[in-house]
## 1
Amino acid sequence: MTRNTFLFAGNFPTLTDDEINSAYEFVSVMFSGVLSLWGVLSAEIREKKRTLCMNLLVAWYLLDTKPQSASGVLGNGGMAVSSKSIGGTSLSFEGMDAQEGIKQLNSNVFGQKALIMIQGAPERFGIYA
């Protein structure tokens, strides 16, 4: 994956092709099952979903590991506030429900969008036409 093919390159303007590709390789191994999801859909839709999800996962990983390189990204990803404290400046966000292995995707907006896609894949429900 390069800046030219990374859908969210604009949110990471200072990253090189090597940094983006390294992130892609990492998430490709960590979430290898994503590339086999949506198999029951038409080839065109299946590939679009896989591409979008992998791009969201790369952006999630980059935002978590290189937050200083991000631009124009919401900090809490729209997560609901579960607790706050004014005097001691403490704030907690409530994450989306997820299985243990993918809860980490709640850490930013890109991960949450990938989580929604993964949890909504037909293979997770055994729904086949």
Note: The first strand starts at residue 80 and ends at 85.
## 2
Amino acid sequence: MRKSSKLLACSLIASSIFSFSLPVLADTSQSSLPTTSQSQNSSTGTSMTSADKAAARKQKLQNEILHLQNAEQFQQNLAPIHQLQAQDKQILDQIKTLRQTIHSQVKTDRQGKNYSALLAALNDMIPMQDDIANAQDAAQTAKADWTQLSTDNKANNSSAVTSDLSKIQTDIQNRINVYQKILADLQKINGDLNTTTSTTTPASNSSSTSSST
């Protein structure tokens, strides 16, 4: 009965460690230029005077200047978000690498019947499940905020865009915090799996028994 329980624990940890998936930067970098909803209606006809044509050209140039200014400001506002995205990706890459290491160590411990290490790792996986759920929730929130940013940007709602960018920055920072917790969880699990079980062999048992008699 005890042996079957240990085998069940091995099976559980082998499947549980790799059953979760983390969002790989669910948000998409909205680095394109802000769109302009206004288009110039080219009025053709002999009724336009030279002054009218000059005024139309001036208006077109003013619109282009405003468009570029908005684009420049938009890119400046995106700069801190890009920095956070790079940090987010770096931690996620570390998580992926550590999961691969744990996968190899699980095989080693299963072959060596290191049940105590596997059980310790399995117990440490329990609190990590909440962190995984938090990471997935954070990704969904960020995705929704990116969608809202795109909507407000197309509508040329500058005040809403500023608010959206602030929300996205907070979203990514929250996800980074959760990823750091998951990374710490995996490091602890990896430490559990690398713990060697000290067992007493039958030969040593018999020798100690004979010496005592």
Note: Helices lie at 2-16, 50-111, 115-154, 158-193, 202-212.
## 3
Amino acid sequence: MSFARTFLSDRLTGADSEGIGLHVEQLMQAVAPEWPVPETLARVRASNLCFGVPMNWALNDADRQQQVCRTLRYKLGQFEPRISQVHEVQMQEDEAGNMVSFVIRADAKMADGEEGIELETRLSLFDQQVEEDSL
């Protein structure tokens, strides 16, 4: 049983894009320690040990953005079972405001089939979370 299904089941019962957006926001605000877990340990990789998105801000800009987007795409597949396919992850930095914006376009499983959704969230470069009043 996966971490998402076990500990976030109340959030996973709703099939609306708002519930998915809330879960994606929680995933992105949780910092993963990047444990070296091999692919053969699929259940460990889907456990709370690996929940969250590692944000390595020390790489060069282009390399870092590609790595963060690839990691986020993987983590969405691992921890958000309602998303069937991620089409695009875009990342835009606001250096003056020390924030990063993410736009995620994906297909999600809804009550009446699959539906395309677009999610947007912003994170602080300082603490990986943007306060509501700063939006």
Note: Helices lie at 3-7, 9-12, 17-29, 42-45, 61-79.
## 4
Amino acid sequence: MTDLFISMGHDISVKNLGSGSFRCRELASDEVAKVIAETRASGGEISGYYKFDSDLSDDCMKQFDELLLAFEAITGTRLTRNDFMSEPDEDGDQLPNLNYMTAVDETCRMLVVGYFFQFNPPSNMSPKAWKESFMVARDHMEFNLIEQVL
């Protein structure tokens, strides 16, 4: 059983991956579904990290939901917010995995997802309209799988 940690965005440091040697290979979008399906079928856990704002603003959550929809459109695999949240505490509250990254080792691989924004310029360029004109592109993402070399 191997867990899969999904980092939404390229902003990770390879120095924090763990100890040992690592292999990074680019995956085609149709290969991503297979990696996730294999992880789930073997009982492995899927968790992830996304750059949430510390206050979990509505804008941040909207962008994250767009990102999950784009991921599903491109890979054919659904992820949920729960995959990016911590385990519930004693009060049942869940927090996002803020500044969190698990170690890549013999029990965990990491999928790094690079995503892009498309710009749909509105006719009215007010600051609010400008901000709302950027959406996560649903036609292209980059996928890199990082594994420990044993």
Note: The chain has three helices and five strands.
